Amino acid sequence: MIVVVAEKPSVARDIARVLGCKKSVEGYIAGDKYTITWALGHLVTLCEPQEIDERYKKWRMEDLPILPETIPTKVISKTRSQYAVVKKLLNDKATERVICATDAGREGELIFRLIYEKTGCKKPVDRLWISSMTDAAIREGFDNLQPNSAYQGLYQSALCRSQADWLVGMNASRAYTLRYDALLSIGRVQTPTLAVLVKRADEIEAFVPESYFTLTADFGEYSGQWFDPACKEDNKKHRIPNEETAKGIAQGVRKKQATVQDILTEKKREVPPLLYDLTSLQRDANRLLNFTAKKTLEVAQNLYERHKAITYPRTDSRYLPNDMVKVVEKTMGLLPPRYDDLVTGVPRTGGKLAFTKRIYDDSKVSDHHAIIPTSQKANMERMHKDENELYDLIVRRFLAAFYPAHEFEQVKVITVSENQYFLTTGKTILAIGWKATDRPSKTERESLAPKVNVGDVSIVKSVKIKQDSTKPPSPHTDSSLLSAMENAGREVEEEELRESMKGSGLGTPATRAAIIERLIKVGYVQRRGKSLYPTDKGIKLIRIVPDDIASPVLTGKWEKALSEIAQGKRETERFMQGIRSLSTYLVTSAQTGELKTTFEKEVRGKRTSKGKTVAGVKCPLCGGKVIENQKAFGCENWRTGCKLTFWKTGFERSSGPKMTEKLLKILLTKGEAVGSTGAVRLQDGMISFTPLGKESPVSKQSIEYHKK
Q: Catalytic one among 34, 83, 180, 312?
């Protein structure tokens, strides 16, 4: 008997069907030659500190750092019954061989290896490694099984990642929780990811808007925007610093003669985008479909497992191996009928698709190739809306890769009146190319340039002046944060270090969505619409931890080291020694560092209702102390009837600021606070928010308002 261990029951059923196993038993499916069982995700995990030594049950600073020589494993209690089934099958005398059929990636490898070692199984193991769940791919995978020893590096990488997260997270979290008397979760990847969000929040907070004016002249047949030809910065050349200057320019050119001085024509070419890896798919799905990174991964996993419609989604490659030419040809011929016109438009030479390094490149394919549709005909009617939309993105990107470049002509018309310069731009599409595959709502349109010649003369009929202001950096979204995580260290100034950081990042494509969700779950980040904001607690955490754990650069280097372990290019002990040293340093920094802030007290699973006092201000209604809790600022005398309430998120629906201690103090002392988003005012018992550029408030509420 050969026992096949899959990661999930649904995958086990697919494999069982292909192998002809039909007898369903509790926990497995049996056949004449094969028995298929499954892991339900992790069945075995690392022990908690108190399970290694009873003394660690009570958190004490003197016990830190906890650095066991080896971290033992345990069976997860919730899935103990399934573990018992797998253990019995693996150690059955009738079992001759075992096939690892968990997900073909780092985490899937760890899931199987921990089970295999925990059960004490000594049977020889083969590895099933497939990139799609179609019947044909499963059969081909079983025809090309590899010895599990070929994936030893991948297992070592997975085990080092798991143990590193245990050592850093457990030691740092305990040390800082004890030091600051607050539940503080610190992680090797989650903390530097939080630091990225805090850095952006600091940039927004420090931003001081600058007002400026723009001026547009109407020449009759066309219009042009004023610009300064001496300015070298494109984003500033249209700005006029003050209204007086703008009015002076307008007065000087109004009803005056204008002459076309120059017409600049430039042909441009945009090559097709690369195929999707998971991160680029998550970014586009966030931008175009408003999916979170987590949702994109979940939907993609359904398309892969349930519908067999796409290849393995948890990939970091955007290329295909050179030997997939025939598979691609077959796939393109089996796409759903709605794509027939686009398939017909794919250019061919001698009846064959293009073979380019932008699509096929063995050197840029790691464990899995780019995400593409499978060569099994997909039934889009059986997909729900989200699956339909994500599949559509993947198909269109797949087709786009084989289309020619998008070509257009960029035209700039420069008109001069009274020594003032005006710019008119236009775009003429010469060849739609790959943009023909864009979603209909995103199809690019022409903006035709005026039909004029150099030397043509007209009269400035009218001039419009518009007031504007510089905008703060945008808050991170899932899309932009994923990009920042993927490119950790790219902004490093030191050239040698920056070069060494290539290919590293915060987490992996398969784990980044979970990291974002983890930050939200532990209260460090809030999602408002598409934007991600660090909470007060998250900001305070980054202020107190050393750069070694908050630095995206260092964590990116650790991730690169894990990749090198998987490739057999780095020793595991060297990596783990570095992790132990980091864990020790973090504990020492918590023990000896200066107490820089205070956190709202919490107990596990429940927040205390008592808030902290805001120093330096008094309640404007009764003169009592102002206190802060998780959701609002209020008065200490609320039990005796004072109804003062400033909700922290009261203006967020109007794109206004979050109420912070700093903002509250300004309001209660000055009555007004002006920032990057607009003005918040406290007057006549009302608090209001007026966005920049608006004359009247868009949101008001009484400071006695008592509905969330």
A: 312
